[in-house]
Amino acid sequence: GGERREPTPEEMEQFRGRMMKAELDRLMFSLFAASSQPIAHVGTAEAPDGSADVLEIKDERGQPVRLFVDQKTHLPLMLTYQTVRPRIMTMGGPDGPGGPGGRRPRAGAPGAPQPTVDPEAVRQQMQAQGPPPPATATVRFSEHKKVDGILVPHRIETSIGDDPTEEWVISKFRVNPSLKADLFEKK
């Protein structure tokens, strides 16, 4: 190809919108077995602590998103899908920009050093590395407890490959709370 250009703010906003929609679709599928895509039963998975039915939808790229549902309790156990492992580039560190611990005064503050990172060099370094390989994301649901008669997971753990990326510990759910209409007004 040709020369690569930076995405416009509108393109970035569209990309963020697609990512949020994909995340919402996965959560709706995993927590409510609801999807705008057809849901297929693709098999049974066996584990030392029991069996799970495997349900599948396709994401917008046509890749499988699989939900593992406990055969005895019918509760969601795990969701898997393909993603790209995010790249992490650090620009600080023990003796990086800002000195010991990478801490530095806030940009524009008196005594704040000028940035020493060349964005073009970072872009070239990322381009030389090529695209990151796909990885399997796994979302595990556990600690199901009843809330107003509905069993809901109170722990949700996400990992990409073998690396944990986030953990939600939910202390409180409210089922069908009353909401004021002005909550949804644009401010």
Would you mind describing this structure in some detail?
The protein is an alpha+beta fold and 187 residues long. The protein is built from two helices and seven strands; from the N terminus they run H-E-E-E-E-H-E-E-E. The protein has helices at residues 9-32, 119-129; strands at residues 40-47, 50-58, 64-70, 76-84, 134-147, 150-160, 163-169. It has a seven-stranded antiparallel sheet with strand order 1-2-3-4-5-6-7, with helices on one face. Residues 93-100 have low confidence and may be disordered.
Task: Present the secondary structure layout.
Layout (H helix, E strand, L loop, with lengths): L8 H24 L7 E8 L2 E9 L5 E7 L5 E9 L34 H11 L4 E14 L2 E11 L2 E7 L18
Antiparallel strand pairs: 1-2, 2-3, 3-4, 4-5, 5-6, 6-7
Features:
187 residues; alpha+beta; seven-stranded antiparallel beta sheet; 7 strands; 35% strand
Structural class: alpha+beta
The total of helices stands at: 2
Q: Give unreliable regions as ranges.
A: 93-100
Instruction: Report the C-alpha radius of gyration, rounded.
Output: 22 Å
**Multimeric organization:** single chain
| Overall mean pLDDT | 84
First-last Cα distance: 43 Å
Q: What's the β-strand tally? A: 7
- Give me the strand/helix succession: HEEEEHEEE
Question: Per DSSP, what share of the residues sits in E-state strands of 2 or more residues?
Answer: 25-35%
**Strand order, sheet with most strands:** 1-2-3-4-5-6-7
The outline comes out as globular
Helix content: 10-25%
The largest sheet, given as strand count, sense and whether it forms a barrel, is: 7 strands, antiparallel
